[in-house]
């Protein structure tokens, strides 16, 4: 990644906490939108990205399993917080009290993020020791000392070295201690005035590495992601309202649909993570199967007229979606390589964020026009299926345009 994971998570966590607090104090709808969409959204984005891309760096053989286990907590959160939020609103007789409690719960992540391991250079032991003479390569009377950085008479040079402890009991009388030092020329001070600006531009270029869009495979995946998340956003937002609109569930019963989604999400991430590491099918094929099931089930929403049916749909929908969440970073590693995962996943989140912000409002507009959620769900399922069809051409694109 381009920044330390711990730093990336800790600082935006305060923005997210302020977002919840701002929303709870707001009296205007636009103020709530500002608190939720800006502060909370940015905070979640900064937290989510390093949490996802740091896992594949430490695992190779069981990478999908590790990813499934690490992301399963979000499903448990959905299981618990849906009924908890309804209870808090009823307890405080207002949503503002529930938002304040949410602020306190979210800020606990600030403490937990301090336990993130610092990103370090992944260097094999034999590579780290390369260049250091072994006992067989040096005479018994040769001992090497790497000295601490000291000043030198030449102001344009700096001595780069450090001490290497030597057991003096093993030093033979009359032997010599060789000094290993290196001198690095310093850049003249007249050129340092340009460094901050150029460094900032380089940082921006690294963070917004749009060269990935020159990769045809990533372009296909980005178009798929836009279509998929345009469709996937509507069921997650409106399944609660669909149940109450069809008069097959009370508000409390409808909130349990979110809990069912949470259970399915957790189970799916763990099971599909384990399966992806052990199955003969490729991650791409597993991904495509889950997406087709997701899209087809969403287009069948008009057949629902009982509570158990919408509960079953919620379980199937979230199972397939949870599987894709756990496998997305694994698929990007397979398609683009581990070294491009951070920027690729960041751009993926950018594309899906834009798509999600458009998908749910469109379904709401269609409901206002038609008085039914069916058309919005048809559109959602159709976009998911069309996006999945694009994934089928990725192997052909890889063969035709190897990059």
Account of the protein in words:
This is Monocarboxylate transporter 14 like protein. InterPro entries: MFS, MFS_dom, MFS_trans_sf, Proton-linked_MCT. It is found in: Membrane. One of its GO terms (molecular function) is monocarboxylic acid transmembrane transporter activity. The protein is mainly alpha-helical and about 400 residues long. It is about 70% helix and about 5% strand. The strands form two sheets. A two-stranded parallel ribbon has the order 1-3. Helix 9 runs antiparallel to helix 14.
Provide a compact summary of the structure:
This protein is mainly alpha-helical and 403 residues long.
Please describe the topology of this protein.
Elements: H1 5-25, H2 29-53, H3 55-58, H4 63-71, H5 73-92, H6 95-112, H7 125-128, E1 142-145, E2 157-160, E3 176-179, E4 182-185, H8 195-207, H9 216-245, H10 251-278, H11 283-299, H12 307-336, H13 341-370, H14 374-391, H15 394-400
Parallel strand pairs: 1-3
Antiparallel strand pairs: 2-4
Helix pairs in contact: 1-2, 1-6, 2-13, 4-10, 4-12, 5-6, 5-10, 9-10, 9-12, 9-13, 9-14, 10-12, 11-12, 11-14, 13-14
Membrane topology: Multi-pass membrane protein
Domain Major facilitator superfamily (MFS) profile: 217-403
InterPro entries: MFS, MFS_dom, MFS_trans_sf, Proton-linked_MCT
